[in-house]
Write a structure and sequence with these properties.
116 residues; 81% helix; mainly alpha; Four Helix Bundle (Hemerythrin (Met), subunit A); 4 helices; elongated
């Protein structure tokens, strides 16, 4: 690949990263809203499935665009959710407390710049 092509590709990636960055607060809000909804009915697997899907999707796209810290928090949450789902159990109060702490940290770092 020529240097010119590399620069064009980098420019496109930077533009996509910038666009994604602007969406981060709304994406975080969607995750937080889903988590609150789950906590209103801890026995509703649909709420937990929606929360899991949002976390999983965010983790992947954040990683793609270089938002490593944000993706790492989602990875930690995802591990907790996978463990609970794998054991066919609802989340314990201890796990809920850990997820609440992780989401609080997530909110603080949501606008941390991406690594190129």
């Amino acid at each position: 690949m020529t240097d010119d092509k590399k620069q064009q590709l980098q420019h496109r990636m930077d533009a996509l990263r910038g666009k994604y960055c602007k969406q981060l607060p709304a994406k975080y809000q969607e995750i937080e809203d889903s988590w609150k909804e789950y906590q209103t009915d801890l026995n509703n697997p649909d709420f937990l499935d929606t929360f899991y899907r949002l976390i999983h999707t965010f983790k992947g796209t954040a990683s793609t665009f270089g938002f490593v810290k944000q993706a790492d928090v989602c990875f930690e949450i995802q591990k907790l959710l996978i463990d609970a789902k794998g054991n066919h159990k609802t989340l314990t109060q201890d796990v809920i407390a850990v997820i609440n702490k992780l989401l609080a940290n997530f909110k603080v770092i949501i606008n941390t710049p991406a690594k190129k």
